[in-house]
């Protein structure tokens, strides 16, 4: 085994991958939420559709999107490997456990939260991303140029109550996942310092509330305004 | 006090084991938890039943030998060692569940006694500074800033009891391993072997079958010596910088 | 037999250097042909095993704990002395030597103590190089604190866990040699006997505590680093597993036992709270700097206190007897350990003890808190106060602490010569297991020093001298003596298991402890000692006919482990009583009430008792034979201590 594979298959190496992919996905979420804020613009979706085209055609964004796919896949695969390893480290469990007195629920259940988010992600991608790439999307023209009217698709989708509910609830889970994952990733990278860690933790908490709330506001906004 | 004890009994490593319930009477609040078990064992012996085996030695919270998982927590409700836990932390009539540490790397030897030699092997992998007896410089030739010496001491306080492993949902030994890596990485004496040490100790920790870290912080919260998880961050740093820069291919 | 201490000739300061030079050496290529057994992995054992393995010897290290890191050296709190003179306060090797000899009440060998002081400086260097995080000053250099019995600051420390840090340092050196394949570790293994062939120690018999397997191990030399025997008193500050078995079995195979009656009683321990008590916890001696020791003036008030009719804080000053301040106006609460202990016993014997059992005195911080404020006291003793509260449930900021003396250390042990060799050639004793350096009383922070001195800096030289004299031929385990010793051990196990009596092992241990504590503890009388001897003999009979040990040998059997140890403690107890009876004087930890000054202080008899009492085992039930090694003082003048 080369030193690279050896490192990446060590417990610390695996954690490193989880942290790096997690942090990249946090970056992705930041971009995603910022762009999608255009949904609130109230211009009938013009800015949003232009943005959507840019995001699917710009080569630099393309590269980033491939990194995002890799991160998602890496994050999922390594979490499965780690979970199994961790489970096997304690073949016989305790009859009684008061784990809640020494650690937070979400920190112990990142796998569960992640699985729920993954299921949501499949629904989400199938509804918008797959449609945008390969589905039939009505076109709209702004100025000289033609654009796919993704805004219309979004608007149609979020007229369904169940979907809105699914999105809002899923964002709750995402928030819990992030509220541990954000600071945890820095800890795994070894970035723990008494000057900076409190700030990282505070930013993590704000982030894990703000981003899911903004995301959840989008379907709600559309549902109640259209 | 009158108590009901639900204790894990297991004849030996290959026995399946199970819980047995024992009533104990006449427990005083001033007894330590282990003295309460002594009382039970005296009663069991008199009745001709095999006494409950558990590890203990110094009974003053420093040797790290006692290792009971009491009512769902390592070393019981307080952040101390089991031997420093007293019966006044419990209520009359209470049922107390006592289990051994649970981890693949800590197999049960008998009843509540587990084998923690995995910890010794982690230290053997590199938890030392290679100096031979004699032939060392004068102690004051190595000045160490007080803050650094204090941080190293914080980490060095680990008693190797294994409560971190017992508390961790992944049975991870990272707090233990990182405490030693930290102590030696902080000190100037530890610099020479710094990289190899981190690589070898982590490799041994993995080979022993401990889980990984999810940063839940349970280890720190349950550690009777209050070892901080900042040590785990430092270990990660040490390890990552070692693997990318060391000569060990 | 004439005891030859093998002290080198010449001036005190040159003895060790000269001895090192004249000692024979084993050539490096031959070292790997010698096997060495080290029993015990505390400071002495771990440091010896690591150092010998570094030299190239093949070492087997044994401990009864699950890991070498748990040996009871780990519990030492205060610190380790060394004559570094880093404080520029007038310390020197000679001063450390002098303080130690005087502190030991002139019952230790000058040459040994001088060597101890000499190598003390190397110990600190060694430990720092290993990464022991000693306390530092802001400039980055090592800090020191002062300790009892000395007028200089020479104690190095790592918070209140110096023993732990030193042990972990030695353990790390040991672990390095385990990884290098030079040391083979045998944890959870108890030494049951020494194998002596043609008068030389050639191996040991062990019992695997997990499987019960009785095994033999052959070697060219055997080192016993097995600590002290304070647990003969049942209640002591020792760990539950600390025992005399290895030393006692060696004694029965021919090693003389020296000064067994020299035990140290520490004055500031948390008192016994009831019959369930399994061990005693030490509170640092430093508490006596600010705490005032007192009991009620009369027995009536004490009675009321014990019945809970009044509280300590309700007792007016005129009804309090600050007995140490009253009796020793100049030293007050800071009298030495033995004096403080004895006086606490006296007032409790008068019925003025302050807890339910009547065996406790107050250590009161009320006045100190009033004078300095709670913050200052908290800074100085916060961790100790917390520990006290955790154990007793009482808050020492609000109510006075209760303390009582407890057995802490045993100065006596296997007799060794200057080379640390016992009277059995090839069998060595290091650390607390030997008798050599502390005389009749040990100074604080000197136990750690001695353990490491023996292991790191003495035995690597002196063992080579012995090994060079025997051929590097493998010791064969098929010698009939090995089989015989193994059979003896198995027979003893069988015997214990077959008694099937009605009383538990602890029952006997507690009874032995009571006899020893009452008659051979802080104050001893001829009458009491004679009674104790008879009681112990009766107890021994009862033990061997009525002890109840369940289970089998072929499993982890903690009752069986304890039974072996208690059986040996009973025999040792009798020898301690013999020794105390023989020593018709008071010195250090040995206080015979018949021999005291008019003021009630220890009265030494240098004319008749300036010797080491080394006892030879003569056979089952036969009175042991006393051998005397005269103590010659060429450098210090013997004086009487006074603390008035």
Write the layout of secondary structure elements.
The complex is a heterotrimer of chains A (226), B (249) and C (644).
Chain A: H1 3-8, H2 11-36, H3 46-57, H4 59-88, H5 105-108, H6 110-134, E1 139-142, E2 145-148, H7 150-157, H8 161-188, H9 197-225
Antiparallel strand pairs in A: 1-2
Helix pairs in contact in A: 2-4, 2-8, 2-9, 6-8, 8-9
Chain B: E1 3-9, E2 18-24, H1 33-47, E3 68-70, E4 73-74, E5 95-100, E6 108-110, E7 113-114, H2 117-124, H3 146-156, H4 163-167, H5 174-186, H6 194-207, H7 218-222, H8 230-245
Parallel strand pairs in B: 1-5
Antiparallel strand pairs in B: 1-2, 3-4, 3-5, 6-7
Chain C: H1 15-22, H2 28-31, E1 35-39, H3 43-55, E2 58-62, E3 80-81, H4 93-103, H5 110-130, E4 155-156, H6 162-179, E5 183-186, E6 189-197, E7 200-208, E8 214-218, E9 221-224, H7 245-252, E10 257-258, E11 263-269, E12 292-296, H8 299-306, E13 320-321, H9 323-327, H10 337-352, E14 361-364, H11 366-372, H12 374-392, E15 401-410, E16 413-414, E17 427-429, H13 447-467, H14 480-499, H15 505-520, H16 526-546, H17 558-582, H18 606-609, E18 611-616, E19 625-630
Parallel strand pairs in C: 1-2, 1-9, 2-5, 9-17
Antiparallel strand pairs in C: 3-4, 6-7, 7-8, 10-16, 10-18, 11-15, 12-13, 12-14, 14-15, 18-19
Helix pairs in contact in C: 3-6, 3-13, 4-5, 5-13, 11-12, 15-16, 15-17, 16-17
């Amino acid at each position: 085994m080369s030193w690279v594979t050896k490192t990446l298959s060590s417990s610390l190496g695996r954690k490193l991958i989880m942290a790096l992919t997690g942090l990249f996905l946090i970056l992705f979420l930041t971009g995603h939420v910022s762009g999608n804020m255009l949904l609130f613009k109230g211009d009938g979706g013009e800015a949003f559709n232009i943005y959507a085209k840019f995001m699917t055609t710009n080569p630099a964004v393309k590269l980033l999107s491939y990194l995002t796919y890799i991160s998602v896949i890496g994050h999922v695969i390594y979490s499965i490997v780690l979970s199994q390893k961790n489970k096997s480290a304690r073949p016989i469990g305790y009859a009684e456990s008061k784990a809640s007195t020494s650690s937070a629920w979400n920190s112990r259940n990142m796998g569960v939260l992640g699985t729920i988010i993954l299921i949501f992600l499949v629904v989400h991608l199938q509804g918008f991303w797959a449609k945008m790439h390969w589905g039939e999307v009505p076109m709209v023209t702004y100025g000289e140029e033609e654009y796919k009217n993704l805004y219309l698709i979004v608007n149609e989708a979020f007229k369904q109550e169940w979907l809105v509910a699914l999105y809002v609830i899923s964002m709750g889970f995402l928030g819990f996942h992030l509220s541990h994952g954000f600071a945890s990733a820095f800890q795994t990278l070894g970035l723990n310092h008494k000057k900076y860690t409190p700030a990282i933790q505070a930013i993590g908490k704000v982030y894990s509330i703000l981003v899911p709330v903004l995301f959840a506001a989008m379907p709600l906004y559309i549902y109640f305004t259209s | 006090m009158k108590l009901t004890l639900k204790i894990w009994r297991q004849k030996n490593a290959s026995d399946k084991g199970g819980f047995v319930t024992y009533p104990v009477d006449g427990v005083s609040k001033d007894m330590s938890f282990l003295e309460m078990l002594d009382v039970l064992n005296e009663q069991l012996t008199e009745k001709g039943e095999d006494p409950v085996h558990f590890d203990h030695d110094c009974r003053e919270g420093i040797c790290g030998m006692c290792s009971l998982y009491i009512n769902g927590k390592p070393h019981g409700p307080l952040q101390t060692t089991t031997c420093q836990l007293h019966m006044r932390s419990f209520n009359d009539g209470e049922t107390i569940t006592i289990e051994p540490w649970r981890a693949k790397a800590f197999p049960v030897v008998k009843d509540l006694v587990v084998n923690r030699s995995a910890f010794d092997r982690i230290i053997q992998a590199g938890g030392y500074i290679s100096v031979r007896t004699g032939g060392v410089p004068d102690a004051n030739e190595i000045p160490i800033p007080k803050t650094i010496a204090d941080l190293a001491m914080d980490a060095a306080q680990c008693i190797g009891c294994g409560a971190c492993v017992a508390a961790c949902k992944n049975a991870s030994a990272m707090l233990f391993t990182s405490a030693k890596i930290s102590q030696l990485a902080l000190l100037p004496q530890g610099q020479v072997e710094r990289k190899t040490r981190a690589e070898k100790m982590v490799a041994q920790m993995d080979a022993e079958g401990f889980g990984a870290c999810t940063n839940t912080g349970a280890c720190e919260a349950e550690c009777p010596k209050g070892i901080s998880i900042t040590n785990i961050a430092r270990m990660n740093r040490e390890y990552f910088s070692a693997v990318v820069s060391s000569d060990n291919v | 037999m004439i005891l030859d201490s093998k002290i080198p000739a010449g001036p005190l300061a040159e003895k060790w250097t000269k001895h090192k030079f004249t000692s024979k050496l084993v050539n490096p290529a031959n070292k790997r042909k010698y096997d060495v057994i080290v029993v015990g992995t505390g400071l002495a054992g771990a440091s010896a095993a690591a150092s010998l393995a570094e030299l190239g010897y093949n070492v087997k290290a044994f401990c009864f704990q699950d890991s070498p890191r748990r040996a009871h050296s780990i519990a030492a709190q205060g610190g380790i002395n060394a004559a570094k003179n880093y404080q520029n306060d007038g310390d020197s090797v000679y001063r450390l030597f002098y303080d130690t000899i005087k502190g030991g009440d002139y019952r230790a060998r000058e040459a040994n103590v001088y060597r101890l002081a000499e190598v003390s400086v190397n110990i600190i260097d060694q430990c720092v190089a290993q990464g022991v995080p000693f306390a530092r000053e802001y400039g980055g250099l090592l800090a020191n604190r002062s300790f009892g019995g000395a007028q200089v600051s020479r104690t190095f420390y790592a918070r209140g866990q110096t023993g732990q840090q030193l042990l972990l340092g030695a353990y790390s050196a040991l672990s390095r040699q385990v990884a290098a394949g030079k040391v083979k570790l045998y944890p959870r293994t108890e030494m049951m006997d020494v194998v002596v062939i043609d008068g030389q120690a050639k191996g040991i018999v062990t019992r695997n505590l997990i499987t019960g397997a009785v095994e033999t191990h052959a070697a060219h030399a055997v080192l016993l680093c097995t600590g002290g025997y304070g647990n003969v008193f049942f209640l002591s500050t020792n760990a539950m597993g600390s025992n005399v078995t290895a030393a006692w079995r060696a004694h029965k195979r021919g090693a003389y036992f020296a000064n067994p009656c020299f035990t140290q009683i520490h004055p500031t321990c948390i008192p016994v709270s009831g019959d369930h008590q399994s061990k005693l916890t030490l509170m640092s001696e430093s508490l006596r700097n600010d705490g005032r020791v007192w009991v009620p003036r009369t027995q009536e008030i004490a009675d009321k206190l014990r019945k809970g009719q009044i509280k300590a804080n309700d007792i007016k000053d005129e009804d309090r007897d600050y007995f140490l301040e009253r009796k020793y106006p100049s030293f007050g609460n800071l009298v030495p350990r033995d004096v403080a202990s004895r006086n606490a016993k006296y007032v409790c014997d008068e019925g003025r003890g302050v807890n339910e059992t009547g065996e406790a005195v107050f250590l009161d911080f009320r006045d100190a808190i009033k004078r300095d404020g709670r913050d200052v006291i908290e800074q100085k003793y916060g961790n100790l106060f917390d520990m006290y509260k955790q154990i007793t449930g009482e808050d020492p900021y609000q109510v006075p602490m209760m303390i009582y003396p407890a057995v802490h250390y045993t100065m006596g042990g296997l007799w060794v010569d200057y080379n640390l060799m016992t009277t059995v050639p090839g069998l060595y004793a290091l650390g607390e297991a030997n008798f050599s350096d502390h005389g009749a009383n040990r100074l604080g922070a000197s136990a750690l020093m001695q353990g490491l001195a023996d292991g790191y800096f003495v035995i690597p030289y002196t063992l080579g001298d012995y090994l060079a004299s025997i051929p590097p031929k493998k010791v064969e385990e098929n010698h009939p003596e090995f089989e015989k010793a193994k059979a003896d051990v198995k027979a003893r196990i069988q015997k214990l298991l077959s008694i099937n009596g009605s009383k538990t092992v602890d029952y006997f241990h507690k009874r032995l402890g009571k006899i020893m504590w009452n008659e051979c503890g802080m104050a001893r009388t001829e009458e009491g000692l004679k009674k104790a001897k008879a009681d112990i003999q009766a107890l021994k009979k009862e033990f061997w006919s009525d002890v109840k040990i369940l289970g089998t040998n072929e499993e982890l059997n903690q009752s069986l482990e304890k039974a072996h140890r208690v059986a040996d403690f009973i025999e040792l107890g009798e020898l301690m009583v013999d020794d105390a009876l023989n020593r018709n004087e008071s010195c250090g930890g040995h206080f015979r009430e018949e021999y005291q000054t008019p003021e009630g202080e220890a009265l030494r008899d240098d004319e008749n008792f300036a010797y080491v009492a080394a006892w030879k085992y003569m056979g089952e039930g036969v009175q042991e034979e006393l051998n005397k090694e005269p103590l010659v003082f060429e450098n210090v003048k013997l004086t009487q201590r006074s603390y008035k």
